[in-house]
Give the backbone structure.
Amino acid sequence: MVSAMEVLVSQQSQLRLLPKSTLSSLSGIVSNSDCNSLDSNMLKTDHSSSRTLSHTSHSKKPSQRTLRKSKKSRKLISFKNNSESSSVGRTSTFTPSTTTPTTLIASEDFTISLPTVQYGEIRWAVESNCASPILVSNRFRSRNKFENMDYSPDALKILHLPNAGGNSLESEVLSFEVLHRCFGAKLLKTEMEIEYCPESSKKTDYSVTLHGHHIGVSVTRAMKFNGVFTAQDARWLLEKKLQGIIVSSENVLDGWEKQILHVWTTHDYIADIIKTEFDKISDSLRKDTVVVLTICDYHSRHANVFSSNPLAIGPIFHVPPVVVK
């Protein structure tokens, strides 16, 4: 496993911060103002449960912290300001900024940026009996080609075992990596290991345990080849996938409690459209489904989430439309 830097916090330790240029190079999505906000927030990591706990120093001076080498394959950094956190269960599209407390999970292969409250939102959605729909979003930035990445053992299992076909293998492998590293998911069964009655039923891509609960995961991609993604495109995609989730949940033999619909998208404007249209869909389709929306833009094209064909890169990662306010 490739070693990475991990932020550990101690009020008695010597203060050492990475240079802003180094931090920006690491994540590719951190602004200078985000770097400055490190001075007002501290992060503590519980590795046994993959939880992150934030706390603030009572001293008037900036809190002290230590950076040290770790064998862990990720880096955790928390950015915080005085803004209020969003309430649990509320749908929101996330773009890293100084208005949202932010956590980075980084390795030499990729960086995932997400609101600090998102871990708690997902845990609440999984553990509660409430069927209220929830959509959360985060950002994925690859730092390496798909074939050169260092994957977890469960992700390698998805990669090497047969699936139901199609060209979505890369998106499914990286989908598991996101859920595993951000929320602590552990693989239960791959697509062809899950049994249904009838066998011709709509299928789910893989299943996991998450906070002690059995969860199915369906993966899809929201993009538009050589065109502008519209509200009609979002509505069609969401209704199709949500209906398929209901059918697979009814027919699966080893039943799960909920499903996660993991949506990869190429642009921020598409993420905004997905969020808006998801709010409009009937509760009967959205019930017992958690939507995780991950933005994976042009800078991550070598991750092959949307296509491994170099000729498709331009049409897929098109220039977004200009929004007139």
In short: The longest strand covers residues 213-222. The chain has one domain: 74-316.
